[in-house]
Amino acid sequence: MSEEKKSSVNLSLIVAIISFAAFAILWWLNSMEMGKAIHLCFLMSQTIVISIVIWQVCDPFADAAQWIGQRWKIPGSVRGATLDAVASSMPELFSGIFFVVVAVTATDKDLVTANGEGFGATVATCAGSAVYNMILIPAMCALFISYVRTSRPTIDIEERVISRDGMWFLGTEVLLIVFLFSNEMHWWMALVLLATYVIYVLVLVGDAKKFRQQLGELNAKIAEGATAQEAIDQMRADGQKISRDMADRIHDLDDDEDDDDESAGVLFGLLKIPLNSIVAWSIIFICTVLAAGACYWLVKVTYGMAESLNVPLFFVAVIIAAAASSVPDTFLSIASARRGDDDGAVSNAFGSNIFDITICLSVPLLVGCYLNGWQPVALVDEHGETIEGLVWLRVILCVLSVVTLLIMWHNRQLTRFKAIILCLLYAAFVGYAVFGSLGML
């Protein structure tokens, strides 16, 4: 393990140890019933611990998924939008299911109101996660890279990533907003969202096939005696576009480099599990079960925080649950950026959002409709009014997404200055949620 990785592991361990120690102390103080402030701090400490647990569960899941992806020769942008996105979006999926189930089974409200509240929290979590992924993750990657990668201190984004993944995300977001304007979510809407994701995956499969075809052609030219750069120049002269990911892979092969990690990191990377097909799929199954348990805990804490603060569940979910469930996305994208895979870092954020909207909302919606006798889920409160915050969320989602895409499209690059602007945009979103919870909007 390099000195840089060792220092990163040591820092992560220190943060985790401090977090768990604070959780233990606050648990003890809360058991002594020392007041509402201690109780809120205890709930917040649980959120931090849950985030760490989700992070450590999703790390080996992502390693196993990437190992499988390497065997299929999937390009970085496609892997980031599929395997990485699924790995990091498991928390949103399970949280959404548990929000609906807990709302219906653990409250004394009528079925329609409880179902609406639970699915409203699911919408808030996925929408909040979408904003977090879209804005904060690229910003964090850009800030991190601007300090540690002096040779190329910017996140450089292929046009294909924005035109494909960015536009697909915007399209699925518009589709969701159209559905939300009816204030009722029907089971067939879930099927439309699921079908949308299937079509998106088919597009990615087509791109992966083109990538493998180009890779084969380049390897053939190199086998005939051409250098990696000569092979790339020949194909570009023929009018073919060669992505940076493709060029990097060919140069690595030409230099006889093999940096593929054949193991999954566990407990902050301190332990390494050698991977093969059986081990990889076993890790995915075990991590999925553990992630489900952590997400159930997160849902219970979110309900407890909303009750203690006496604010709508919607606003707590849009910040706390969304941020806690997006921790894996953050670390996966930063890890991709550190490897030089800028496209994978950005496409992971886009792919996670597409997965959140099309899968993490559609599955809980189907569960809610089933529990409601296949009647639509009404996004209204006990007074029959639209869930507070939902109207403004529709507008804010579109505005923030368009602004962020325009920032990324400019020079196809994220600089430190742009990252600061994105952080300010996310701060404005958090401010909206806070003021909304206080009834000031």
Which oligomeric form is depicted?
Answer: single chain
Sheet with the most strands: spatial strand order? 1-6
Number of strands: 6
CATH topology-level name: A middle domain of Talin 1
How does the helix and strand content classify structurally?
mainly alpha
CATH superfamily descriptor: NCX, central ion-binding region
Assigned CATH class: Mainly Alpha
Q: How does the SSE layout of this entry go?
A:
Elements: H1 3-31, H2 36-71, H3 76-105, H4 111-148, E1 155-156, H5 159-180, E2 184-185, H6 187-223, H7 228-237, H8 244-254, E3 263-266, E4 271-274, H9 277-309, H10 313-325, H11 327-338, H12 342-358, H13 362-371, E5 377-378, H14 390-409, E6 413-414, H15 416-437
Antiparallel strand pairs: 1-6, 2-5, 3-4
Helix pairs in contact: 1-2, 2-3, 2-9, 2-10, 2-11, 3-4, 3-9, 3-11, 3-12, 3-13, 4-10, 4-11, 4-12, 4-13, 4-14, 4-15, 5-6, 5-12, 5-14, 6-7, 6-12, 6-13, 9-10, 10-15, 11-12, 14-15
Care to describe what's here?
The protein is mainly alpha-helical. It has a single domain (3-437), classed as NCX, central ion-binding region (A middle domain of Talin 1, Up-down Bundle). The chain has helices spanning 3-31, 36-71, 76-105, 111-148, 159-180, 187-223, 228-237, 244-254, 277-309, 313-325, 327-338, 342-358, 362-371, 390-409, 416-437; strands at residues 155-156, 184-185, 263-266, 271-274, 377-378, 413-414. The strands form three sheets. The protein has a two-stranded antiparallel ribbon with strand order 1-6. A hairpin with a 4-residue loop joins strand 3 (263-266) and strand 4 (271-274). 46% of the residues are buried. The model has no long low-confidence stretch (mean pLDDT 77).
